[in-house]
Amino acid sequence: xxxxxxxxxxxxxxxxxxxxxxxxxxxxxxxxxxxxxxxxxxxxxxxxxxxxxxxxxxxxxxxxxxxxxxxxxxxxxxxxxxxxxxxxxxxxxxxxxxxxxxxxxxxxxxxxxxxxxxxxxxxxxxxxxxxxxxxxxxxxxxxxxxxxxxxxxxxxxxxxxxxxxxxxxxxxxxxxxxxxxx
Length: 182
Description:
A hairpin with a 3-residue loop joins strand 1 and strand 2 (44-46). This protein is 81% helix and 4% strand. The chain contains 5 helices and 2 strands. It starts with a helix and ends with a helix.
């Protein structure tokens, strides 16, 4: 294989992954803007858009998770309902959570990887940004911040679990050859 074909193949692969991330992010933007349930007014909203940056982090690592989180987070800022910076930083952290989970878990058995992706997705993407941003920008009452953080932890962990199952059962078997360099 010539070097040009090899470079083209890698570029085509990067382009395919970028398109997957952008399309997922577009879905996340729609979900984040229109589908949300307020739990703690001005602080916590439940939304299925959490799935998108978490899934992007699983599929494309840190760059894909951060890009998707940024795009979905901008939509969350525009939608309102929360501290404005929370949807942006929270969604970026969601993408980081599962991407870091992939790096940490490596080639562990599947059950261990599910646990790591779920816990890190929930902790890094849910609890930490919500707790810190609520504490420093809204109310320095630890009980309120912890409650908000635990709700977002549970939501992020649930969606990280769902994203892992989607990746392993639908995306990898059907689309792996198109989005990965294999």
